From TrEMBL:
Pfam families from the UniProt entry: ABC_tran
Key words of the record: ATP-binding, Nucleotide-binding, Transport
Domain ABC transporter residue range list: 15-262
Domain of life: Bacteria
Keyword Zinc: no
Protein name: Peptide/nickel transport system ATP-binding protein/oligopeptide transport system ATP-binding protein/dipeptide transport system ATP-binding protein
Organism of origin: Sedimentibacter saalensis
GO function term, MF aspect, one: ATP binding
Family listed: Belongs to the ABC transporter superfamily.
Gene3D superfamilies: P-loop containing nucleotide triphosphate hydrolases
GO BP annotations, alphabetical order: transmembrane transport
Amino acid sequence: MSIEENKSVITAKNIRKEYVVKKHFLTGKVKEKVAAVKSVNFIVEEGKTLGIVGESGSGKSTTGEIVGGLQKPTYGSVYYYGKNIAEMTAEEHKEYRRNVQFIFQDPQGSMDPNYKIGEIISMPLFTLNIARDKKEANKMVDEILAKVGLDLNIKNKYPSEISGGQCQRAAIARALIVSPKVIICDEPVSALDVSIQAQIINLLKKLQKELNIAYIFISHDIGVVNYMSDTIIVMQNGAVVEAGEAKHVLLHPAEEYTKKLLDSAIIN
Ligand SMILES: Nc1ncnc2c1ncn2[C@@H]1O[C@H](COP(=O)(O)OP(=O)(O)OP(=O)(O)O)[C@@H](O)[C@H]1O
C-alpha cells in the first residue's frame, strides 16, 4: 500500500458495476449486460470532500452505493482505511457500516413514516449498541438536534409533518449521531427550494469543520460540487472523464463534457 492510500479513509480501485438487462427466457443465460460504472478510481481523505459530478445516468449513485456497501462491485475493490471491505470480518463490517453513512435526495422517503423523528434519529444508537438506555439516547438526540439547528419539539413529529429542509436536517442528524468518518451525500439538496439549499450546504460545511468528517458529495450541479469539494471526479457514461483538485478542474476543464456541465451551471 502506498503512503497516499494510507492517509485515505476510502480508496476505490477499478470499480466496475454491470447489470444484467436481458436473459434467455428459458435457459436464464445472460444475453445482455450494461456497465453502469467502468473502472472508477479515487481516494477520499479524512475530513475532506470528494465531489462526484455528472449528468443523469452517468453512474454517480451506483458509485456511492458501492462505496457505502449497499451494492457489490462486479470487479474492483473498496478499501476503508486500507482494508478491503469485501474481506472484512462481520465485526469489521459492522464498524465500517457505522462509519460510512448516507444522506439521500429525498429525506422523507428515506425515513419510516410510522416513526417519530426522535425515534428515527435514536434508532441506530440501539441497533449499534451505542447508547446504554433511553435516557442516554435522548440526551444524544438533543445534542445532535442542536448541532443541526433543529428545535427539540421536532422529536415528536412524524416525517410527513415537517418541511423538506427540516427533514434533511433530521437525516443529517441521523447520520451524524453514530459519529461517522464519512457521509455519502447523494444529491442532498436537489429536491429542496433554492433558499433552503444554501442553508443545508452551509450546515454540511460547518459540520465538516467541527467534526472532521469526510464527504462524498454527489450532484449533477457542478456549481454546488465546486463549492463543497476539495477534489472532484467528473463522470460520463459510467467512466471518470476528468479528475483533480476542484479549483483546477473548474478553472481549466480539459473535457468538452465538463465545459458543458459548467455552462449549464452558469445558466441555472
Ligand atoms: N438495477 C439496475 N439495473 C439496470 N440498470 C441500472 C440499474 N441501476 C442503474 N442502472 C443504470 O446504470 C446507469 C447509472 O445509473 P446511476 O443511477 O448510478 O446514475 P446517476 O449518475 O446517479 O444518475 P441520476 O442522477 O439520474 O440518479 C444508468 O444508465 C442506469 O439506468
